[in-house]
Amino acid sequence: MNNLPQVKVGIVAVSRDCFPESLSVNRRKALIKAYTDKYGAEGIYECPVCIVESEIHMVQALEDIKKAGCNALCVYLGNFGPEISETLLAKHFDGPAMFIAAAEETQNDLVGGRGDAYCGMLNASYNLKLRGVKAYIPEYPVGTAEECADMINEFIPIARAIVGLSDLKIISFGPRPLNFLACNAPIKQLYNLGVEIEENSELDLFEAFNKHAGDERIPAKVKEMEAELGAGNQKPEILPKLAQYELTLLDWIEDHKGYRKYVAIAGKCWPAFQTQFGFVPCYVNSRLTGMGIPVSCEVDIYGCLSEFIGTCVSNDAVTLLDINNTVPADMYNESIKGKYNYTVNDTFMGFHCGNTTTKKLSSCSMKYQMIMARTLPEEVTQGTLEGDIIPGDITFYRLQSTADCKLRAYIAQGEILPVATKSFGGIGVFAIPEMERFYRHVLIEKNYPHHGAVAFGHFGKALFEVFKYIGVPIEDLNYNQPKSLPYPTENPFK
């Protein structure tokens, strides 16, 4: 995954001048030890130049952590803390910041050894709001050295996503296909998030692809593909074209990312792509996504943005799927009922033509695209990757800008069941608690498109904090609510 930032958290301890500085010094040492004992020293930096008590100290600490290459900040209240200096530190730091505070250690030292950081955290949060400074504050931000170490570790994937967004360029090719208004993508919110976008014509991509004809790197790339596909290589004759296309995209990324470090692609894949290029790009899209370069289908710009965020949070490949079809009653009765605690309406199938990396498929075959082949010659629809997606925990989520440029997001945790889909494409049987209500009162009610990003694991906690941090209003940060918590639009008499 060379398309993701490496996070280095600068840990700066602060102290109010009427409290013993030694409290912050000793508690910082204990925090660093607790973190390195459990998680190792990589990814954190202990600011040694000072304990921040004043604005001058703040400047010194800021210069030190910048010099050390820190791209994330942890402000640690070893005692009550200096509310002005500590919040100025977060204000002037160019990157995500978190605030945590030390709990008292023992009843035997509550006179000279009492720090009152529990109180100081309230003042810190108040001053952050006054200054309009964003900061991540954990659910319960006061703890022992070991508990605060865990909080920092939970902050790292959140910080990775926020740092990644600040240096991301989305490259798109072509307008969305006809009848895909759901993939509407107002770009204003991309700029608000600090994301750059480069919109290109399909003709630009086609020209670049043709210029790669006969590229000397194609045979080696074909061998890579053959090794990955193994017995699933059902269409070997199309591999040279797919290799040519992959090299085209990789070269385009290097030539066009400009001053940005990270890239995601919103690609075109129909209707004219097949007849002009002579294949479908699904397998290549899956390979790039497996490398940590998310590629969305159907020019879904907010889809690839969502994928990138999930890749940062999970530090793993993700996928983008249609929330596609219901699970038939006979399949439910035979394979799910009585074995798993889900109703039939908690289940559905997530599907896309073949953009899911081989790493996330139980087995795979590279074939032709059946839906497209209904109206086109089969030979131009070759290149899709098919297989059932591996069972296990998942998070289904999406960040979206509405047509009037308002940010909105949803997160739903669930699982892919070990149930054979008996269907085609990259597909899995998904189960999400209360999916029936979530489908109606979030996905439909809030006008979400049919594409959702899938992270392989339960990452709802981190994603929720990322979306909060980047400015999604809490009323538009939705999740699959339990029955005991009705949705605002839910009919109470149903």
List the helices and strands and how they pair.
Blueprint: E1 9-14, H1 21-39, E2 44-46, H2 55-67, E3 72-77, H3 83-92, E4 97-102, H4 117-131, E5 142-143, H5 145-166, E6 168-173, H6 188-192, E7 196-200, H7 202-211, H8 218-229, H9 239-256, E8 262-266, H10 273-277, H11 282-290, E9 295-296, H12 301-314, E10 318-325, H13 329-335, E11 347-352, E12 365-368, H14 370-373, E13 382-388, E14 392-401, E15 407-416, E16 426-431, H15 435-444, E17 451-455, H16 460-470, E18 477-479
Parallel strand pairs: 1-2, 1-3, 3-4, 4-5, 6-7, 6-8, 8-9, 13-16, 15-18
Antiparallel strand pairs: 10-11, 10-17, 11-16, 12-13, 14-15, 14-17, 15-16
Helix pairs in contact: 1-5, 2-3, 3-4, 5-12, 5-16, 8-9, 9-11
Structural notes for this entry:
The protein has 494 residues and is α/β, with parallel strands linked by helices. It folds into 2 domains: 9-165, Rossmann fold (3-Layer(aba) Sandwich), CATH 3.40.50.10940; 167-479, no CATH class. 37% of the residues lie in helices and 20% in strands. The protein has 16 helices and 18 strands. The strands form 3 sheets. The protein has a 6-stranded antiparallel barrel, surrounded by 4 helices. Helix 2 (55-67) runs parallel beside helix 3, helix 5 (145-166) crosses helix 16 and helix 8 crosses helix 9 (239-256). The protein is globular, with a radius of gyration of 25 Å. The two termini are 48 Å apart. The model has no long low-confidence stretch (mean pLDDT 93).
Radius of gyration, Cα only, in angstroms? Answer: 25 Å
How can the largest sheet be summarized? 6 strands, antiparallel, barrel
What oligomeric state is this?
Answer: single chain
Distance between the termini: 48 Å
Count of individual domains:
2
- Percent helix: 25-40%
The average pLDDT is: 93
Q: What strand line-up does the widest sheet have? A: 10-11-16-15-14-17
Which percent range describes the beta-strand content? 15-25%
The coarse silhouette is globular
What is the count of β-strands? 18
Number of separate helices: 16
What structural class is derived from the secondary structure elements?
Answer: alpha/beta
Low-confidence stretches: none
